[in-house]
Amino acid sequence: MKTICLFLSIILSAVTVLSQPKTNLSGNWVAKSGTPDNPGEVYFHFTHFADSLKIKVSLPMFGDKYLNMPLPSISLKSDTIRFATFDGMYLPEKDQISANINFLYDAIPFTLSRIKDVGKPVLDTAKVSGKQPAWTFEADGRVWSSPILHHEQLFFGCDDSCFYTLNSASGLLIRKFRTGGKVRGKASISGENLVFASDDGLVYCLNSKTGKVVWNSKINNGKYLRKEPSITDGTWDYAISSPIVSGENIYVGSADSCLYALHAQTGKLQWKFKTDQIIRATPQVSGQLVYCGNWSGKFYAVDSKSGNQVWMADFHQPILSQPAITDNRLIIGSRHAWLWCLDAQSGREIWKYNYWWSWVESSPVIVNGTIYIGSSDLKRVLAIEPETGKTKWSFRTSGYSFAAVSIDQSTAYMGSIESDSERKASGFLYLLNWETGILIEKIEVPSGKSSYLNGIYGGIAVGKTMYYAASLGGKIMAFKK
Known about the structure:
By secondary structure, this protein is an all-beta fold. The chain is 2% helix and 48% strand. Mean pLDDT is 86; it is low at 4-17 and 78-82.
């Protein structure tokens, strides 16, 4: 979301040149990404004087609002116009400007075309179904984690430092286990046990039937210096690395910048791999390699047995999502505003998809030969071909979709977050046809215990007859299929 702030700081600082056209540039222009299939838009307003050019950039924000930012006036000299925004060339035959924004470490191509007026941002106008939950449970804090189903029980963590167990049919509380910190990650199943991480720096292993502690292991020697979501500060730090069970080991990242391998039965340390920044992303395992990104944007492939680095790629911006893998292809997103596809064995880039000016926080999910993934400022759920990076379909949401998409036989489930400084906005739960992206149902999620964010951050747990969503308002909701 605060990629916008980063975007503005970059276009304000770039030193660029556009050949001066004879045609007056005054008026409104829409900038559309030159990346195939990308629907993102940014607007510019130029006021062309005899010897200067004033510029204002407008970006769609919350609901029907824009963020309007004036840029420094540009002096016109000789046959050039010095922009602070982009490298470009005016094309008189098309009355367009062909340009590149030097965004972070990549030049993003786009085209500026004249428009008469800057209309309101395109909104999600789909009708809310009015469907009510079969049951609702209210926790004692915000719920960022993704609930999971196991043996007809629903498990989730909460900002009240507790890990909850509910009866999935009735929503009645079975037990809650208190830790020493917020529990924001997703639990993993290890046989009859559940494994999850807490902000107290421990990984816990609980028996799923009794709730008793099997083991806990300290993985964090650093301090959790969290930054809660803010309108003015884009360096949010709200995620936590969730443990992944693979074979005899559990893999999890930590605030001490290390990737840990713990024995699944005992919690004993097998190895730890040191990186250069904290790890908030959840690892992924395939074959003999463990893959994980960190806060500095480094993405590592590590040997699962030895803990030695095999290769590393640098994406320059924080990685908070879990990568997906299919046919030796790794799909990775970051706050760099790109979705990458890398060769899983070498780290070689195969393709990349530009999100224009949006974070890629959602963890990609690959089902039936398709990548399903959400977005923040782009406000879309996308279905993408793993082979080419081309969009199969794109569905516009009302808010930001940070979670991984959940898929069952015919439906894709995705929650969204609304941002409102007055804390009045509601989020939504979307049910889409996973083949076409056509909306099946849109359910409103009321606001509640939050900062200025409301809605659903985590993934949706899907059962045989019901599906379950956890809100930042602290409510767990079960809906009948």
